[in-house]
Amino acid sequence: MLLLDNIAYQKNAVAILSKFSELSKIPHAMLFHGTRGIGKFSTAVTLIEEVNRKAGLSDSQLNKISSLAEPYIKYVFPLPRGKGETAKDTATSKLSQEVIEVVNSEIRKKADNPFYSINIPQANNIKINSIRDIRKFLSLEYTDIPTRGIILEDAHLMNEESQNALLKSLEEPPEGVVFILITHLPDMLLSTILSRCQKIKFNPLSKNHLTKILTEYFDVSKVDAELAAVFADGSVDKSIELLNTEFEELIERSINILRYSLAKRYHTALKIFSQTLEEYDEKGVELLIELILKWFSDVQMKKVNLENTRFALYNETIFKFIEKFPDVNSYDIQSSIEKMKNNISRNLNLNVMILNIIFEIGHLGNKNV
User: Residue 345 needs a FRET pair 20 to 30 A away by CA distance; which of 136, 142, 253, 352 works?
Assistant: First the structure.
């Protein structure tokens, strides 16, 4: 039985990778792409384990792969810049001891839980020095390790210089090395990088698989896991973001914003947004907006008589809306709000964006049935 067979949550991707493994034709570079938190990293590690297990590595050696130990795995991810860091330094040599301890702690958490999302303050990009470290890694030979893995997490966070530096390694890869680039934003990678990678698409997790991962890997109760899974779009990362808030309260707030905005009680709706911003920063506001978007999605689903909606406990609000505004195109308002939400990442004025969303919803109240 292949180790990959244990990955039930990504059947399509695993089927492709299993075929590569069975034929002993693993591409030297692969791009695992799909939304965040759907098992791309865990699949990457399992693939490297599987290839080496078939080649006869012992259990103790395989355990070093799962623990992300070099030289079996070179794990590359965003790091902060060290004080006085130059091109001659390694990616970590100029980091403070305190930061290095955080980095090592995060790697241990990732090894213990492959669905854990690494969080290091001020780590906003994959540094050029991290890519230079890869070239040093490649220059060393380990004849006792059949296949070494280089995993680049959030590969889209390489700037152009870093991508061009990586390109040199991808063009002339040594035997026995597999590159796996992981990203949810493949369009941010250079076409020259993309052209050298075998692309493997990963799909959002089913609600059942997501619930199982949350209960097994994050010790979340089944009730909370099932609730989060309904709203998380098949993503472990999104589930954890939701579970780190007063999630049911956030759902209630999204409904109240809709009610107050439609009633043109704009100040009251704004107060709810402001309270959420104060309690959960911009991420809480983003989650609140996503819940509003999902409510409008449920409106559209109810219009075509689909029962499997997210806001099942608030069906009354949906039916009342449809009755009052039968001609409103939910897709149009979703598209409009989605464009405004995207401004959060562009550092535009958050209060202006929030007001625009409130007014956009309130404008529906001008429509007469």
Answer: 253
